[in-house]
From TrEMBL:
InterPro entries given in the database record: CetA-like, Osmotin/thaumatin-like_sf
Name recorded for this polypeptide: Uncharacterized protein
Alphabetized UniProt keyword annotations: Signal
Highest taxon listed in the record's lineage: Eukaryota
A Pfam family this chain is assigned to: Bys1
Secretion signal, residue range per the UniProt entry: 1-19
Length: 205
């Protein structure tokens, strides 16, 4: 019993430590990503301020950027531009704080998405979905965020006084942010790929 409990505890810890934000670009154009932590400048692939945003090529569900959580108890904004490396035509923001010993606070925001003080998103005509996975998913407000195409996203921040922040326990696995997701997949529950599922079963057995 002790050995089995230890293995399960280690498996949960491994899932937590390795968890990432996975941005999956289904769009037929590239998307560009910066992230800002603790109010710092926007940083991309080379870590310099306002230079070299991450680029996720146009894809069909296979163009993925994996970002490790910044675990310093301070807010992070992941800013996403669609087909605009200069970030001049609006952004979508995935915001989070990884609070050690507490949990992951997160949201999707359209505030300032169309410019300073203007709500909007360059993905208004596209399906966007954020999905927590593994043990923490489904607990309390640790639920997926769905933004259907051509609709105001009621799950996202559109005004500063909205209450849209969600909380996930620290044993939550990867977070998937799907951009321009095809409608036939939009309502589906995200499942582990078969190989990853087999590895997980082998590890925890």
């Amino acid at each position: 019993m002790y050995a089995a409990t230890t293995v399960l505890a280690l498996a949960a810890l491994a899932s937590t430590v390795s968890a990432t934000l996975n941005i999956n670009n289904w769009c037929n154009v590239p998307v560009y990503v910066y992230q800002s932590n603790c109010g710092s400048c926007d940083k991309g692939s080379n870590g310099a301020c306002n230079q070299s945003p991450y680029v996720i090529g146009a894809g069909n569900g296979g163009s993925i950027l994996r970002l490790d959580w910044i675990r310093n108890n301070c807010g992070t904004s992941v800013k996403i531009s669609k087909n605009d490396p200069g970030f001049n035509s609006g952004i979508l923001q995935f915001e989070y704080t990884y609070a050690s010993g507490d949990g992951l606070y997160w949201d999707v925001s359209n505030i300032d998405g169309a410019g300073a003080g203007r709500a909007g998103t360059p993905f208004y005509h596209d399906n966007v979905k954020a999905t927590p996975t593994d043990a923490g998913a489904g607990q309390g407000t640790c639920q997926k965020i769905r933004c259907p195409a051509n609709q105001l996203c009621v799950d996202a921040y559109n005004h500063p006084d909205d209450v849209r922040t969600r909380w996930c326990p620290l044993n939550t696995g990867d977070m998937w942010l799907d951009l321009c997701e095809p409608t036939e997949f939009f309502n589906n529950k995200r499942e582990l790929p078969a190989l990853e599922a087999r590895r997980a079963i082998a590890f925890t057995a």
